[in-house]
Design brief:
381 residues, alpha/beta, Beta-Lactamase, Rossmann fold, 2 domains, 6-stranded mixed β-sheet, 33% helix, GTP-binding, enzyme binding, nucleus, lysosome, nucleotide-binding
Amino acid sequence: MSYNQEDEEPFGYSQMPVGSFSKQLGYGYEDDNDQDPFPGAPMSSDNKPRILLMGLKRSGKSSIQKVVFTKMSPNETLFLDSTPKIVKEDISNNSFIQFQIWDFPGQIDFFDHTFDSDTIFGGCGALIFVIDAQDDYTDALIRLRQTTTRAYKVNPHIKFEVFIHKVDGLSDDDKMDKQRDIHQRANDDLQEAGLDITFSFYLTSIYDHSIFEAFSKVVQKLIPQLPTLEHLLNILIQNSCIEKAFLFDVVSKIYIATDCMPVDMQSYELCCDMIDVVIDISCIYGALEDEATAFDNKSSSTIKLNNGTVLYLREVNKCLALVCILREENFDKQGLIDYNFHCFRTAIQEVFELKENTKQKPSKYLNDTGLSNGYMQGPAT
C-alpha cells in the first residue's frame, strides 16, 4: 500500500502514543506456508543469543519487555504484577533479529544452590541491568556489582548494559546528575573488584522513544552483519542525497542499522511515528480479509513536512522497512532513489544468502551494489 501526506505542521503527527500500530502485526510468520523473502538458516532456541533483563523489584524490567516487544501501551504496564519467576520470550521475526529475552525476578538470589550461573550466563549475549532513577539506587548498585561479577566469571564476552530507567519524571539537570553519579559509582565498583568490564549507560523511559533507541543499540551489538548493513546504508545515502537512513524492524521500532551520520533523537522519533502512521493506515485501508497484515512489498509512504524535509519509507521485507530523511529539493530525483533502493534491497538479500554459504566473501556485493549517483550513463553492473 502506498501512502502520501502533505504535513502542514513540521511535527504535526508526533503526538501519537508509543506503540499505536496494529496488534495484528506480530513477530514470525502467520502460518507454515508463509515464506521469508530473505531466507536464512533458522536458529534453534538453544543457539540464539540471550538478552537478560535484571534489576531490583519494581525497577521496570517487565514493563520494558512488554512495551518494546509485545506492543503493550505504557499505561497498561501500571497493572503488571511482579515477576515471580524467569520469563522467557523468543524474538524471531527475521534472520537479522533472532534472540531470546529472559526477564528475571528482582528477588533472585545468586548464592542460592539452585541458581545455575553456567547455564544462565553461558549463552548470554547481553545483560541489561535496570536501575530505577526515581528511587534510592544504592541497593541496585550493590546488586549490579554482584550480577556483573558472577556473569563475567562465567562469560567474559557478555555486553553489559545499564538502563537508568523512569527518567520521564526528572528534569534534564537531574537526569544528567543521576547518570553521572551512577556511572562514577558503578565504575568505581568495577575497579575495586578488578573487573575489566565496560558498561554502556542509557537514560530510558517507556513513555517516550528513549527505550526503543536504547534497545536498538543493544540489539545491534548482537548482529554480526552490522558493519555490512551500515556500509550498505552509507553507500545508499551517498548516492541518493539522503540526509539520514534507518533500517527498522517495524514490529518493535528497533532500528537494526543506520548510516554513519549521528542519530538525532527527534529524527528517530519522527521515523518511529511514520511507521505507526503507515501501519495504522495500511491496516484500515489496505488489508484484505485473508491477510494478517497490510505491510507488504508494495508498502511505501512519503510525508512532506513544511520545513522542507521529506520522510520516505519503503518496505524491505515483511518485518523490515527503510526509512529515509532528505531535503525536499533532493527528492526531485525519486526515480534515482527508487532505483538505488532496489539495489540496496538486493544487497540485503545477499547478506542473508551469505549465511548459507560461508565460503563466499562479503566484498562481492559491497563493491558491486549497482547503486547510481545520477551521473552515470546507465545502471552500474
